Each structure stands twice: as structure tokens, then as C-alpha cells.
Amino acid sequence: MEEVWHTRVVTDVAPPRRRGRPRDADLEDRVFDAVLEVYSETSWRGFTLDAVGRRARVGRAALYRRWASKDDLLVQALEARSPLPVPIDTGDLRSDLVELARQLLQGYRTTPGLVSLRVALDARVNPELLARLTHTLNKSRLLAARTIVHRAVERGDLPPDTSATLLLELVTGAVLSHALFALTTPEPAEDDAYAELVVETTVRGLRPAP
Amino acid sequence: MEEVWHTRVVTDVAPPRRRGRPRDADLEDRVFDAVLEVYSETSWRGFTLDAVGRRARVGRAALYRRWASKDDLLVQALEARSPLPVPIDTGDLRSDLVELARQLLQGYRTTPGLVSLRVALDARVNPELLARLTHTLNKSRLLAARTIVHRAVERGDLPPDTSATLLLELVTGAVLSHALFALTTPEPAEDDAYAELVVETTVRGLRPAP
Fold first, then answer.
1. Does B124 lie at the interface with A, CB-CB under 8 angstroms?
2. How far is A186 from chain B (nearest CA, A)?
3. How many CB atoms within 10 Å of residue B80?
4. How many Å lie between the alpha carbon of A181 and the closest alpha carbon of chain B?
5. A64 in the Ramachandran plot: left (φ > 0), alpha (ψ -120 to 50) or beta?
6. Angle between helices B164-181 and A188-206 (to 10 degrees)
7. Which of B149, B177, B183, B206 would you mutate first to test chain A, the one with the most A CBs within 10 A?
8. Domains of chain B and CATH, by start
């Protein structure tokens, strides 16, 4: 395994479709893939620049030249691989929330989604290291939920005092439990039906009894 | 660190209150504590009998004599440290669910609760190893929810076709998100208020519109 620690970047092992791309973008791709793989198999403690370098076949010096710390590397890999959700604005509360639930559920079925969950768990053990990172990862989700609730309140579809946090925790939480504890991976159509059921129940719950 | 690998059990480092307990119970206590600590800091991959032995100051031979595999050790430690929830039967649907939500929320704030979540995450990466274990860990929770729903349906408090799984995923999911993504640990009274809010919303959502 010594060889992979050469500082020379082994560009000739890259898949053919990447030919002609800038050398750095190719390095970055391999490194970000390796970050997610290593983190999804281990945790904050097992996630080291050395382990990433071995997996990505990138030299230690090249890694350290580019990323100052494992925090930086993790944040950048997650940002690159979990693009921000497309802003949701269908004009209808239920459709907005179903789309949010579907995006979250699909997200939790991917490696970046599992890594985000691992980071949140690791933050419970190492709050001083990871609390800021977890906060950053959650902010866009909370912002999406707030925007949806705000518009629904303006349209009169939800009471003015609706808690966006409660709504988000019910919807996120249900799809998270569903993705985490189910033994099988369902068909996409089943995920869609589940997203609708969760949203229907939550919206009915958030409206005051007539 | 070599010394701790002696097969002799170092009983004289045990806290005084354990004096007089059988040697084996004392060994088990230290090992189970170490299992939860090591697993909560690492993951399935980092959780090795060697790491547990070092943390518990128990010799490798003593560990292997008693536990055949790391599966066995993990299951036994989780069963010993996360006692089954006390059966909940207050006579009222909302009170039953609030008690369930409180138990789950408090559970997720403890090391055994975090370890159970880690096991569920690790099962997504290593299904062949951990799916059975995750299933076992969830069974008692699902059984508790089913019993509560069944009684509520008999009393006429919920429609007969209420899904216990959906109810459990909404309640568990919300408290799980709440415990996992919040930056601060709230006072117990705040947790109780949150449990009530989640249950109120979920029960209203599960009842058909009049």
C-alpha cells in the first residue's frame, strides 16, 4: 500500500469519461467519493485523512495541501454531494410538503444522507467538533420548511402560530424512521405513497379542531 | 498497554459499591459499559473485542471465553443496558402515547439509545450482519405501539384501520429528530411539553375529519 502514498496524483486510473477534465476536478471527485465511503463505514473517529487518501489513491501531501483539516474536507464533500434541495413552491401546502418529504426520504436512502445522519450522531459524542457542522447541514432543511409554512399561513392554509420546527420534525422524523428501521428498500412508488400519507396526517394534525 | 491483556481479571479496580458481588457479574458490568462506550464513539467497524477489552481492562482470553462473537456481545450489552420499556396502560390514548414519547425521547438522550441508532445506521451499510439485530431492537417498540393502538381502537378512540406503524414512525421520528438535531439539551419539563405537543398533533392527524 506504500505506493499510493506518493504525492504524485495517479490520474491514469481515472475512468475514461473523465479524460480531458482538469486534473484538480478529477482529484476532487475521487477524494469526495472516498470521504463519503469512509465516513459511511466508520464514524468521525475512523474518518482520517490517511484513510481517505488510501481509498482515493491520493497522496497524503496532495490531500494536506488542499484541505487544512478533516472538518473542511467533510463539509466540502457533503456540500458537493448533497446539493441543496430545489426550492419547493407548487402553490399548494400539501404538494409542497409531499415534495419535501420525498426529497428527504430519497436523501436518507443515499450515502450522503446516511453520512449526514452519522455526523449528527457523532455530534452527540463530540459536540465541540461537530455541532457547528450539524447546524449547517440542518439549516437549509429548516429554511425550506419555514418558507413552506410561511406561504401556507399567508394563504390561510395553516394557523398563524404553526410551528415550522414541529412540522419539520414530524415529517423529517417519520421519513427518517421509515428509512432507518425498515428492513427492505421499497419501490419508489411506495415511498411516494408514504410521503403523501405522512403529509396528510401531519397537516390534519396541525390544523385546529373545527 | 500490554498489561491489561493479561487474562487475569483486575477486580481491585472495581468501584467499592461492587465489593462482594460475584466476580463474573462485575466483569460483565465493566464489559457492557465498555461495549457501549466503544460503540458510541466508533461504529460496527471500530467495535472490536480488542477495543472492548482494552477499555474494560479485561483480558482477551476472558472475553473470548465468554462471548463467541461481537454480535453476541453487542446484543447482550444492549439488552442489559436498555431495559424493555415498562408496559404502558394508563387507560387513555393520549396519556399512553405521551408516556411512550417520553420514554423514547429520554432513551435517545442516553448512550444505549445513541448506540441503538448507530446500529440501525450501520445496518444500512452492513445489512447481512446487522439487519437481524436492528429488527430485534425495534420489535419491542413496535409491539408497545401496537398494543396502545389496539386498545384505543377497542375504546373507539381511533379508527379501526389506524396504522400502528405510521403512528409509531410519526411519534418516534419526531422525538428522534428532536433529540438528534437540537443543539442544546433541554430541561426534562421541556421534553415533557414536547412529547405532549407531538402526541396531540399526531392523534388529531390520525382521526378522520368530522
1. yes
2. 14
3. 16
4. 7
5. alpha
6. 80
7. B177
8. 2-80 (1.10.10.60), 82-206 (1.10.357.10)
> B145 in contact with A at a CB cutoff of 8 Å?
no
Q: Does the beta carbon of A202 lie under 8 angstroms from any beta carbon of chain B?
A: yes
Q: Quick one: pLDDT at residue B3?
A: 32
Give pLDDT tens digits for A9-63: 333 344 444 455 556 778 999 999 999 999 998 989 889 999 999 999 999 899 9
Residue A27: CB atoms within 10 A of its CB come to: 20
- Cβ-contact B205, A201 below 8 angstroms: yes
Q: Name the DSSP class of A16.
A: G
- How does DSSP assign B144-184, residue by residue? HHHHHHHHHHHHTSS-TT--HHHHHHHHHHHHHHHHHH-SS
Residues of B with Cβ-Cβ distance to A124 under 8 angstroms: 114, 180
Residue of B nearest to A113 (CA): B121
Q: How far is CA B76 from CA A11, B66, B82, B85, B122, in A?
A: 48, 11, 10, 16, 18
Spatial CB neighbours of B93, under 8 Å, sequence gap ≥ 6: B148, B151, B152, B155, B157, B158, B203
Distance to chain A for B113, nearest Cα, Å: 11
User: Between chains, do B177 and A197 touch, taking CB under 8 Å as contact?
Assistant: no
Q: How far is A161 from chain B (nearest CA, A)?
A: 13
pLDDT tens digits in sequence order for chain B, 210 residues long:
333 333 333 333 444 444 555 567 789 999 999 999 999 999 898 899 999 999 999 998 999 999 988 888 998 898 888 766 678 999 999 999 999 999 999 888 888 888 988 998 898 888 777 777 777 777 878 888 899 999 999 999 999 999 999 999 999 999 999 998 876 778 888 999 999 999 999 999 998 766
A43 vs A164: CA distance, rounded Å: 30
Phi, psi values for residue B53, rounded to 5°: -60, -45
Q: What single letter denotes the amino acid at residue B175?
A: V
Residue of A129, A177, A178 to mutate for B, most B C-beta atoms under 10 A: A177
Q: Most B CBs within 10 Å: which of A38, A39, A43, as the mutation test of the B interface?
A: A43
Q: How many CB atoms lie within 10 A of CB A23?
A: 10
